[in-house]
From TrEMBL:
Domain of life: Bacteria
Phylogenetic lineage: Bacteria, Pseudomonadati, Pseudomonadota, Gammaproteobacteria, Oceanospirillales
Gene3D superfamilies membership: Amino acid/polyamine transporter I
Protein name: Amino acid/polyamine/organocation transporter (APC superfamily)
Membrane topology note: Multi-pass membrane protein
């Protein structure tokens, strides 16, 4: 095995259709968002949680502007890593923020895996949830790893089939849930949390986590057919689909459970909402739907994030060791991605996984907007006012989310700060050690 074999990612140009790209994006979004975030958002903002989903959709629509402009100009298998390099060059800010995105995507996989475990246990009378939930999540991640060793067309096929099933099933759940409800009003008790501005902003931040899967599409840029045209279309169609589905399901849950019940069952609120509305058969339907959705989401996410890390390695922005593993660098990054996901799934609960993911993602997202505004807006034809609004909206929801966590779970903020400090230090040491005339002249284009 030669070093050149290890370091050459294999990108299959034209191997992903527009429908396949939409399936990848919606697969990550729907799996992460609707099944586990509903209860957590209700815990933060009370009876306003359905509006928090819509608020998140508005902010993500502004955020998507930068990605659409960049994807049309620079379609790339490295996606966000390549966009950051276009804005900041092969520098520490590029490497740091690209790794924030990488880790936020790995965190999303762990979030999906534990959601899978939480819903699956609703079919059984398992008492030891603290052990069984991560165990089921670990088993799902290992299955996703095996599927991702296969060819792109199989991954696309599996994601597309699961995407169609879960989108259809969730729409059925939402429509039926709204139709059979006595009213769309949610019962609110005196002990329920009061709505506040910081709580609403915090819930909106979590809602953004439910939409951020659209960035998965950018990581498959060089593999999508006619990427200059289809990348932007895939992003906007994915977001639009999720806006409709989240709004529908949010109102269905709110009309069939009281606020206290939604919060109590926050890790599996859709299954809990199905029980009083339609009985045990509906619980089975919802749980199986959740299992398919989270499984499809993990397959799609692993597919994209391992390719992003491969591109960062090819760009010589992150260190790489193959540890005597056979195959291409994409296979190696796939292993690293799964191992990190397994560790997070085993040791972190859902709310803390979600908190880490949204902090990392929003900081990276702000770096993208600033980079486009400061360095690339003329090159990609971006409107400065839209970029500034996107930056301010991100800053507002991040501040609200951090404030809520500072008063309820400060440990997760400590973990986030320490994690970012370690990433920054590690990247500074790596980039300082590898500077040479060859590296200084290194550039990449895909």
């Amino acid at each position: 095995m030669t070093d050149s074999t290890d370091r050459t990612p294999e990108y299959e140009e034209g191997s992903l259709s527009l429908v396949g790209a939409i399936a990848l994006g919606t697969g990550v979004m729907i799996g992460a968002g609707i099944f586990a975030l509903t209860g957590q958002m209700a815990e933060m903002t009370g009876n306003l949680f359905p509006l928090a989903f819509l608020s998140a959709a508005l902010i993500v629509s502004f955020s998507a502007y930068s990605y659409v402009k960049m994807s049309r100009a620079y379609p790339s298998a490295g996606g966000i890593g390549m966009y950051l390099q276009k804005a900041y060059g092969p520098t520490l800010p590029t490497a740091f923020h690209a790794l924030l995105m990488y880790f936020s995507m790995v965190i999303a996989q762990s979030f999906l895996a534990r959601t899978f475990g939480s819903y699956t246990l609703e079919l059984f009378d398992g008492e030891n949830r603290s052990l069984l939930v991560p165990s089921l999540g670990v088993a799902l991640l290992i299955s996703a790893f095996l599927i991702n060793l296969s060819a792109n067309k199989w991954i696309q096929g599996v994601a597309s089939v699961l995407g169609v099933i879960k989108i259809g099933g969730i729409i059925v759940f939402g429509v039926v849930g709204v139709l059979i409800a006595d009213s769309l009003e949610m019962e609110v008790s005196a002990s329920s949390p009061d709505a506040s501005l910081s709580g609403f902003l915090g819930a909106t931040a979590l809602g953004i986590l439910a939409f951020k899967g659209f960035t998965t599409i950018t990581n498959s840029g060089s593999e999508i057919k006619d990427p200059h045209r289809n990348l932007g279309r895939a992003i906007m169609i994915s977001i639009a689909l999720c806006v409709v589905i989240y709004a529908l399901v949010g109102f269905a849950v709110a009309s069939n459970l009281s606020l206290s019940e939604i919060i109590e069952t926050k890790d599996y609120s859709l299954a809990a909402a199905a029980r009083p509305a339609l009985g045990e058969a509906a619980v089975w339907f919802t749980v199986i739907l959740a299992m398919l959705a989270t499984a499809g989401g993990i397959i799609a996410s692993v597919f994209a994030v391992s390719r992003m890390l491969a591109m960062l390695t090819e760009m010589k922005l992150v260190p790489h060791r193959h540890f005597h593993m056979p195959g291409s660098i994409q296979k190696h990054t796939l292993v690293y991605t799964i191992v990190l996901g397994l560790l997070l799934t085993a040791f972190f609960d859902l709310s803390r996984i979600a908190a880490l993911g949204i902090i990392f993602y929003l900081i990276m997202d702000m770096a993208i907007h600033w980079g486009v505004y400061r360095h690339l807006r003329h090159d990609v034809g971006a409107n400065a006012a839209v970029l500034v609004v996107a930056l301010l909206l991100d800053a507002a929801v991040l501040a609200g989310f951090v404030w809520v966590k500072a008063t309820t779970d400060p440990l997760v903020l400590v973990v986030a700060v320490v994690g970012m400090a370690l990433i920054l230090l590690g990247e500074w040491l790596f980039l300082s050690s590898r500077k040479s005339p060859e590296d200084n002249g290194h550039s990449h284009s895909h």
